[in-house]
């Protein structure tokens, strides 16, 4: 057996570590690095091949950070109360307030810690993002981030195995004993003094999605890795972990319907929703496109589209929207008339024209400003558009077909502030720590605010690694 560095491993190398980290994305890597900071020996198991390492983290761009004053990459200030208000609003109050505030406060130290391992940042982008004050962007995106962490982990002596899939966790009462792992096509028994499970959600497991959502889930696309099958989550449930979250809740956005089934990533997201209207396949609007800033609302649109006939929607804009948003990797359908655009999108022409005529008639005079919650709204239209409402009347016209793009699921296991996992009987597991998507449902009961998943993963990855390392050394 060979490690990531080409070093030959013995069976003893799979059983003699202080900390076992299961997962290969941001949370897992933060845990591995933090455990090494405590002097613990660490084995990290990544189920994906090396070229696909990093899980959903490779598709990310930023994390949301509390800060008291401007920094080298963040403007103004973003304090705890405002940050928490944003989380409270998007979750509708379905959040663990103690854990949410714990993450928010800890996020203030994240960028400096990340820089200490070589992560570099860049100024935020413009357009519909409105994130220059709240979110720190990684230079080179998530792929560069995880590559930097992997290099640091190898440099510090973390043993990394690729295509090493943990199939099952074996507990002795409330204590982790060992994991059953498939590596190089063969079963292996892997033990450690403590374990950090940061293996993601179940979003790539079609059978589990269908169990939660029904047949409509067959029309969903998966924005991230195909390797998040939820095996460790299922094993935790089988070992009587305390379950938290709704299996139908998760980070689900509107993405281009032409995206691939897996790994379309950020470039398939359609960001012009707030600049126009969205109709279903019957040509009817179904939700307020201008409810709030896009980073606070983009993650509701996947669920909205999932509830529409055929699980499909269509974003329609005119020439006034061009240059105001980050375009999808796929070019929009374009036409000189709305009739022609409806035909290109295979929509009922009369219904689309009626919807747009009614919308245009309802647009009230105002001062359009996409950088603020402006006074451009509709009146007498159902649903109303509360901000950025402009008549769709200047050709050429543009249309994007939309599907539900699942990023990650919120069903997980309950943890405390030290990332320790609760058992169903209310007791804490003895040596089990969780980080990332597998515990994000403690804080994200529903909804999403941009960059917060990476914040949760970074903060709880560091906590889990530190606590697991200290447990093992003690």
UniProtKB/TrEMBL annotation:
Cofactor: FAD
Oxidoreductase keyword on record: yes
SUPFAM superfamilies with a match to the protein in the record: FAD/NAD(P)-binding domain, Succinate dehydrogenase/fumarate reductase flavoprotein, catalytic domain
Keyword Transit peptide: no
Keywords, in A-Z order: FAD, Flavoprotein, Oxidoreductase
Top EC group: oxidoreductase
Gene Ontology molecular function: oxidoreductase activity
EC number(s) reported in the record: 1.3.5.4
One Pfam family hit: FAD_binding_2
Gene3D superfamilies cross-referenced by the UniProt entry: FAD/NAD(P)-binding domain (3.50.50.60), Succinate dehydrogenase/fumarate reductase flavoprotein, catalytic domain (3.90.700.10)
Stored InterPro entries: CobZ (IPR012831), FAD-dep_OxRdtase_2_FAD-bd (IPR003953), FAD-oxidoreductase_2 (IPR050315), FAD/NAD-bd_sf (IPR036188), Succ_DH/fumarate_Rdtase_cat_sf (IPR027477)
Protein name: Fumarate reductase flavoprotein subunit
The organism of origin for this protein: Vreelandella titanicae
